[in-house]
Specification:
Helix 4 packs antiparallel against helix 5. The strands form 3 sheets. The protein has a 4-stranded mixed beta sheet. A two-stranded parallel sheet has the order 1-2. A two-stranded antiparallel sheet has the order 3-4. The chain has 246 residues and is α/β, with parallel strands linked by helices. The two termini are 30 Å apart. The model has no long low-confidence stretch (mean pLDDT 92). The chain folds into 2 domains: 116 residues, no CATH class; 110 residues, Endonuclease, Chain A (3-Layer(aba) Sandwich).
Amino acid sequence: MFSHTTAALLLGCLVWTVPDRTHLYQSYRASGRAAKDIVRHRGDLPSDDVVTVEGLPVTSLARTVVDCALTLHPLEALVIADSALALGLERDELLTMLDARSGRRGIRRARLVIELADGGSQSAWETWVRYQLLRAGLPRPTTQMPVRTDRGLFHTDLGYERWALGIEFDGLVKYRPNGVRPGHDPAVEYANERARTEALRRSGVSVERATAADRSNVREMLSRFTQHLPPDVVTRARTNPLLPSA
């Protein structure tokens, strides 16, 4: 049956990078002539850990998240875990399944990934921004932070309510003609986004933005965010050794 990142895609999860190899479980040893673009995980799975998607045998959503948390880079695993929670998976189910595999290599990091997962993340890049905050040892931000404004209720991708900071990830696709959908007008998008940002600021919330370009200078991105936080919160922050750079 299909597993790991292959199963995640089949189950409708987001992934950080599209895998270039197919993962599957099989109960027999692969031959020496087996295809090199297939990653084979040997083992027999309980029937509860297997579902059918479009006629294909696939590891269950919970089993897929746990497998990925145990084997992938934490950012890769967190993107999948975030989207699995957004699909309705319960965190307790994941922790229970992980407990049953205690003693496995990577169990501590996998538990952290599952505990940090948040179904409020709506894109892999939003997860990336949150990962950088958590890796830096900063407080856990709120996803889809609600802000009441004179133009209605808005939500920022991330934020800290107690410090009136909203964080938005700007994907450049929405500023391209037809980037979001046929007929999409980037000029209208820009005007709406500007009006929304001004409404957020009038409500007393500072808005900071991140883009994919910030991946080349994470420290500078974080400095933009932390200027809005109390100095003692920033000085107490320590890089989490279980979350490597990404």
